[in-house]
């Protein structure tokens, strides 16, 4: 699991107005987190991503998409070899509003 | 060429804040146009897209991306079987600021 954090590091691929288009090679579990001020869009380019949400899990294969609504806790979990694309307002931190690397963040 | 316009009809796949994520099956030539108020982001999911721009052409294959800056004329041309994803502010019209279906639109 030591290599996982680097696996989730997003790279800005393009910019659209004040949004960034980011890609990341992902694998294993990422911190559960939420973004109070923005939705977060996921597109799977390759592999398989599971978004664990309070109301259930969303499973995404290649070219499947999901928008996590603002304020919604979500824990991304990916199979090896997964590559995802995200749209987010510039400056959005991928660990959300909680402490980096903490799981189960629930903000007041 | 009669079937081409329907080929370029975008469908909203997801929403992210006040942006739409759209997909379209595209083939052949689309109107040259520009958007005065917004960048336009293209991601090729399958096939091949050429964006003809004043300074030259951009050729995109699967999972390649390009952002057309606001105000920049562009004419999309696609091979048969091409599928693209776009990211735009909600309400953006795909023919831009010119007359629908007109090619070579140059606004004052």
What portion of residues of chain A belong to β-strands? over 45%
Number of domains of chain A: 1
**For the largest interface in this structure, which chains are involved and how many residues does each contribute?**
A-B, 21 and 22 residues
Helix-strand topology string of chain A: HEEEEEEE
Span between N and C termini of chain A? 30 Å
What is the oligomeric state here?
homodimer
Largest sheet of chain A: 7 strands, antiparallel
What topology emerges from the helices and strands here?
The structure is a homodimer of 108-residue chains.
Chain A: H1 4-7, E1 11-16, E2 19-29, E3 40-46, E4 49-53, E5 56-60, E6 65-68, E7 75-89
Antiparallel strand pairs in A: 1-2, 2-7, 3-6, 3-7, 4-5, 4-7
Organism (chains A, B): Streptomyces fildesensis
Protein name (chains A, B): Cupin domain-containing protein
Region (Disordered) (chains A, B): 89-108
Can you tell me about this structure?
Two copies of one chain form a homodimer. Chain A is mainly β. Helix content of chain A is 4%, strand content 49%. In chain A, strands 1, 2, 3, 4, 5, 6 and 7 form a seven-stranded antiparallel β-sheet that branches. Chain A has one domain (11-90): Jelly Rolls. Chain A is built from one helix and seven strands; from the N terminus they run αβββββββ. Residues 1-5 and 99-108 of chain A have low confidence and may be disordered. The A-B interface holds A 13-17, 19, 21, 38-41, 43, 45, 63, 65-67, 70, 85, 87, 89 and B 13-17, 19, 21, 38-41, 43, 45, 63, 65-67, 70, 85, 87-89.
């Amino acid at each position: 699991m030591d290599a996982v954090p680097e696996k989730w590091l997003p790279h800005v691929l393009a910019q659209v107005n004040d949004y960034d288009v980011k890609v990341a090679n992902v694998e294993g579990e990422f911190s559960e987190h939420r973004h109070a001020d923005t939705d977060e869009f996921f597109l799977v380019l390759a592999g398989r991503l599971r978004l664990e949400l309070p109301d259930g899990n969303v499973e995404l294969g290649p070219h499947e998409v999901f928008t996590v609504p603002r304020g919604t806790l979500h824990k991304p979990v990916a199979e090896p070899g997964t590559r995802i694309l995200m749209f987010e307002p510039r400056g959005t931190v991928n660990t959300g509003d909680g402490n980096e690397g903490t799981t189960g963040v629930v903000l007041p």
